[in-house]
């Protein structure tokens, strides 16, 4: 009897998780699977039960379109844009927006959010002001302590110091706006 062949040693799978596949709807609207998941999560917050609205899949009320876009951090610029978006997603004036139509406008708003540097700057300035309570100064470790306490997060002192060092490139001084934008970019908040 011939000797048994040794099976080749299989290599351990890489630690990189498999990328989520984009749905047909995501491809049609040129969004990633992650962006679609973000849209669906926001949509589901406002979605009404199918039995309540006599629909197979449920829908959101047109009155909640603005709130849903805000949840995506992609609010309409003004009431005129909101009206235009609602006319687009609810052309029959039924008062309801299905998921497929909502994805289309949410994708447009997400693309606009990523493509507009002014919107990114405004977003960074608003977030920065939350730490400094609107004062024109650097973010300090005391600001981080206060925010952690407000969020009821128990963050060790050494972690707070590491956050400051990460933002400033090693020092424990204050975090200026440029440092803060750098942190947000590295964290993936900005495209």
Automatic annotation (TrEMBL):
- Residues in domain EF-hand? 77-112
**InterPro entries listed in its UniProt record:** CALM/Myosin/TropC-like, EF-hand-dom_pair, EF_hand_dom
Q: Does the keyword Membrane apply?
A: no
> Has UniProt tagged this entry with the keyword Calcium?
yes
Which keywords, in A-to-Z order, does the entry hold?
Answer: Calcium, Repeat
The residue ranges crossing the membrane are none
Give the span(s) annotated as Disordered. Answer: 1-34
Q: Name one GO molecular function term.
A: calcium ion binding
Which Gene Ontology CC terms are recorded? myosin II complex
From the Swiss-Prot or TrEMBL record, give the protein name: Calmodulin
């Amino acid at each position: 009897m011939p000797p048994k062949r040794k099976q080749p040693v299989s290599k351990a799978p890489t630690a990189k998780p498999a990328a989520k596949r984009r749905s047909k709807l995501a491809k049609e609207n040129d969004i990633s699977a992650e962006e679609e998941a973000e849209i669906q999560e926001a949509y589901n917050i406002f979605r009404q039960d199918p039995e309540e609205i006599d629909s197979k899949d449920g829908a959101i009320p047109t009155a909640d379109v603005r709130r849903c876009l805000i949840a995506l951090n992609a609010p309409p610029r003004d009431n005129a844009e909101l009206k235009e978006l609602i006319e687009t997603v609810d052309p029959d004036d039924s008062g309801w927006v299905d998921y497929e139509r909502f994805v289309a406008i949410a994708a447009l708003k997400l693309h606009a959010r990523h493509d507009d540097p002014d919107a990114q700057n405004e977003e960074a300035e608003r977030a920065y002001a939350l730490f400094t309570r609107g004062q024109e100064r650097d973010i300090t470790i005391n600001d981080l302590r206060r925010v952690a306490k407000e969020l009821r997060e128990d963050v060790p002192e050494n972690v707070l110091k590491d956050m400051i060092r990460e933002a400033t490139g090693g020092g424990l001084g204050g975090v200026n706006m440029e440092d803060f934008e750098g942190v947000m970019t590295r964290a993936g908040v900005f495209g």
